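Here is one chain, start to finish.
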Amino acid sequence: MTPETERVFAALRAEFGAESIVRVERMLEPGGGGERHPLQRAAKWIMPGLSPTPWHDPYAYAELAPVVHALEANHPAIKAELSAAWKTRREAFSDYEHYLTRQENWQALYVFRAGGLVEESAATAPTAYRVVKEAAVDTEKICPLLESHFSTLLPGAVIDPHCDLWNFSINLHLAVDIPDGCGITVAGETRSWEEGKCLLFDYSFEHEARNTGTRPRTCLLIDLWHPETTLPERRALTTLVTEVRRLMGDG
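Its structure:
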């Protein structure tokens, strides 16, 4: 760890107790914090002690339920604004740059990125911007290490099976515009999006998605802190990942 990481970790132990960030520290030990599920093996970090559950009930967590309800309540406006933007402001969308690849048939419109709200999206998708800001950013439920964006899969697009980087954040999908022929598979279980409703899953498990329909499929994605992580752990993880990215020249 760097001196900055050591300093922050020491301050967290002093404020919250010696055991407050032990799960983060165990994650950094050789072996990555212990056994992991076979379908999580490609993830970079698995923090021990978090439920190894691929699919989660989006309404089950008191911390996350207000985000889910706010998104679903505002779905009609979010969909209308997204549709208008897709027709008249396509320049606001870009090829999605996943950490593994870049896909032209996977388009993204960002609401939150690089640790902050994307101000341009306030004009392009004002309802989504407001809900993400009020329900997730202002309440610190969003994982600032990641993002929120409209994810649009063009007809025929396939996202190949992969694991994302870690298990201490969790991926929430609001199904904005869902044609027939779309699905997502997480840890071998395939589900379909229900327009206007949310799905919640742990993307450290291997997952894939596809659009075999005839028009674009769009979800609004938000990377939220895993509800089983604590405040000191979130602060430690933010410092840790920020320092790793700095050393790698990635922000």
